[in-house]
Task: structure prediction
Amino acid sequence: MIRSTSQRRAIRRVFEESGRPLSPLEILEAARDEVPRIGIATVYRTVKGLLEDGWLAAVQVPGEAPRYEIAGKPHHHHFHCRSCGAVFDVQGCSPAIKSLSPRGYQTEGHDLVFFGRCPSCKRR
Amino acid sequence: MIRSTSQRRAIRRVFEESGRPLSPLEILEAARDEVPRIGIATVYRTVKGLLEDGWLAAVQVPGEAPRYEIAGKPHHHHFHCRSCGAVFDVQGCSPAIKSLSPRGYQTEGHDLVFFGRCPSCKRR
DNA sequence: ATCTCTGCAAATGTTTTGCATCAGC
DNA sequence: GCTGATGCAAAACATTTGCAGAGAT
Result:
């Protein structure tokens, strides 16, 4: 990740403008608004680089393709809408979670994902 | 899932004898001890059928291939060892988790995965 | 004997890689 | 002008599917 190219600038902008985790395909489509000839391989390569740089963090939701979001946000969790498939951020954590970590293991962290229906799918 | 075949009996036995979630490849290898010519397609087809029957439940750990375990266990969470890659069951839950679910969403459940090092990897 | 299930191989979908060319520095 | 980055296409994986034959009922 040495050079600043139009593709990399476009991908970074996509994340800055989207408030939620994105899949590689979502990134590709959004980036094409700015750089129409960008290829999927560049998206994967750039995401990998941004992960190594610590600029992006992976968001893995059970049963879904991996998504990515800007790193460095305060610790938070995610909500997966099983109706529309989108993933949203959920603020807050509880010390009670840490107390659930199993004895004898060296726990480095946790992932918590809620699932159900998001506000707009709920109404239907 | 109408007929009882040696392949299906073998796959069920593999789950009954393993106390932890298994990936399709782990299932294949263990089942081959009993039915050497079993193919990966049969594993996928059988897992799918057992999921539909409610006999198996999917266990998705961030960044890992899907794993499966016998369904109907009491609600529990998982621990993912980032050193050896194995996944273990973690007993217990806290009502504090439910209180974290976001307002405005219809929450149907949650997945909680701890990660770090398992007891045997911890020592090294 | 029927009809489901299986293994194999091909198809599909996703992510990675090789390589010639392009473009940032 | 170097050399890293890109696009394309092929390769590498994981999972699913088509089909003819095997096996359960």
Remarks:
- Strands of chain A lie at 56-59, 67-70, 76-81, 87-91, 106-117.
